[in-house]
Write a structure and sequence with these properties.
44% of the residues are buried. Helix 3 (112-125) crosses helix 4 and helix 5 (158-175) packs across helix 7 (186-198). By secondary structure, this protein is α/β, with parallel strands linked by helices. It has helices at residues 19-27, 80-90, 112-125, 137-145, 158-175, 179-182, 186-198, 211-215, 248-253, 286-295, 313-323, 385-398; strands at residues 6-11, 32-35, 44-48, 51-55, 69-72, 101-104, 204-205, 219-222, 262-268, 271-273, 307-309, 311-312, 327-331, 341-350, 353-355, 370-377, 401-406, 414-416. It has 3 domains: 6-103 and 204-264, Adenylosuccinate Synthetase, subunit A, domain 1 (Adenylosuccinate Synthetase, Chain A, domain 1); 112-198, Orthogonal Bundle (Adenylosuccinate Synthetase, subunit A, domain 2); 266-416, Adenylosuccinate Synthetase, subunit A, domain 3 (Adenylosuccinate Synthetase, Chain A, domain 3). The strands form 4 sheets. A 10-stranded mixed sheet has the order 7-6-5-2-8-1-9-13-17-18, with helices on both faces. The radius of gyration is 22 Å and the shape is globular. Helix content is 30%, strand content 20%.
């Protein structure tokens, strides 16, 4: 690692690629680990000393670097109750995490009414529902864009905070005629919020408190979700509400003109998706069910079973292009051990026309896609020559080298390819 080096680790699929474990592995060499987008809908699973921990808002740090600082940037949507539970839980494993945590005061808060709106909105969409986690992330982001969001810095003035909460609740009661809205009380919400915020009083920071130090330190930026869920470049409207690409880093941290030394893209050796939306290579047969069982494909945040299918090179080429990755990290290839022939989607057929690349994600909204597969010889284990052929095939198709291969859930279960 170079002094002052800055890298990003981003997902290239619909999330759940194993970014948390990858970040935790690289993190030991970095002074700062930074979250720049997302919210408690993220679920990064990391093992610390053999103990499983799921990060929703905390960056996925290294247990071997006790001086490392953690930043939750202004682009993250924060549920303070969730964050408090997370900090208290991880502190039972590693004691000084809270002392090293920075939370940007300009970050917007997720409040009780956001979760209600999330639930009601999904219900009203009927069969057009996108399958959110119902954790209030989208509605909180909508309030942020609508300029009525509650920021952490608003907690410093109780009078203005109460006025803001009263306005929000009044507006939402008018828009959403539901008994759950009728039960909301602005004073109770404020009192509860301030009580929880007291726990973090030493962690709330202005960017002036850390900006110069970060720019002169080694930093790892941890992406949430994956490029295919990006609000601008993902499979819209079946996406998340924040940026999942490298372009969101400056916006979500206030670090203008930031130059990254390297961007790692994380991809799983097969494909999964949680929630609704297009999935051309989804396998609804017993093969897909086996992938789910062997791979433990259940949402870290919601516990929902993930939809499973095969690698899609068209989507991956698109994701590589829009995320600007320099190197790839391949995860969960060991889940495919023992499969005789492994399908890889190399093209789509739509109305008799063959597509080998996509630029318009609207193409995926048609239900006429027929994936065209090339079948790769399977492998017994990751030392098998057929696995190396599979890796080289992916590198040739994607135009980026696979530098790291993850082989299991534990942080150090990886190997570097020469």
């Amino acid at each position: 690692m170079l002094k002052g080096q800055k890298i990003a680790i981003l997902g290239l699929q619909w999330g759940d690629e194993g970014k948390g474990k990858v970040v935790s592995y690289f993190a030991k060499d970095y002074d700062w680990i930074v979250r720049f987008s997302g919210g408690p809908n993220a679920g990064h699973t990391v093992y610390y000393g053999g103990k499983r921990f799921i990060h929703h808002l905390l960056p996925s740090f290294s247990k071997d670097n006790s001086s490392q600082k953690l930043l939750i940037g202004s682009g993250v949507l924060i549920d303070l109750e969730v964050l408090k539970e997370e900090v208290e839980s991880v502190s039972k494993i590693i004691s000084n995490v809270k002392d090293r945590l920075y939370i940007d005061k300009k970050a917007n808060l997720i409040l009780e009414y956001h979760k209600i709106v999330d639930e009601l909105s999904e219900r009203l969409k009927g069969n057009k529902a996108i399958g959110t986690t119902k954790r209030g992330v989208g509605p909180a982001q909508a309030d942020k864009i609508n300029r009525i969001g509650v920021r952490i810095e608003d907690l410093e003035n109780e009078k203005l905070l109460l006025e803001k909460l009263e306005m929000n609740i009044r507006m939402k009661k008018e828009l959403w005629k539901d008994e759950k809205m009728d039960s909301l009380d602005s004073k109770k919400i404020m009192d509860s919020l301030l009580k929880t915020a007291e726990f973090f009083k030493d962690n709330f920071k202005s960017s002036i408190d850390y900006r110069d130090e970060i720019l002169n330190s080694s930093v790892l930026f941890e992406g949430t979700q994956g490029l295919l869920l990006d609000i601008d470049f993902g499979t819209y409207p079946y996406v998340t509400s924040t940026s999942c690409s490298s372009g969101g880093i400056s916006q979500g941290t206030g670090l203008a003109n930031l130059k990254l030394d390297k961007i790692y893209g994380v991809l799983k050796a097969y494909t999964t998706r949680v929630g609704e939306g297009p999935f051309p290579t989804e396998d609804k047969t017993e093969r897909g069910e086996k992938l789910r069982k062997v791979g433990g494909e259940f949402g870290a945040t919601t516990g929902r079973p993930r939809r499973c299918g095969w690698l899609d090179l068209l989507l991956l080429r698109y994701a590589v292009r829009y995320s600007g990755v320099d190197s790839l990290v391949l995860t969960k290839a060991d889940i495919l051990n023992g499969i005789e022939k492994i399908p890889v989607c190399v093209a789509y057929e739509i109305d008799g026309k063959r597509y080998e690349d996509i630029d318009d994600m609207g193409l995926l909204l048609t239900n006429k896609i027929k994936p065209i597969y090339e079948y790769m010889d399977g492998w017994k284990d990751l030392k098998d020559v057929n696995f190396e052929k599979y890796v080289r095939f992916l590198e040739d198709q994607l135009g980026v080298s696979i530098e790291v291969v993850s082989t299991g859930p534990e942080t150090n279960d990886v190997f570097f390819r020469v």
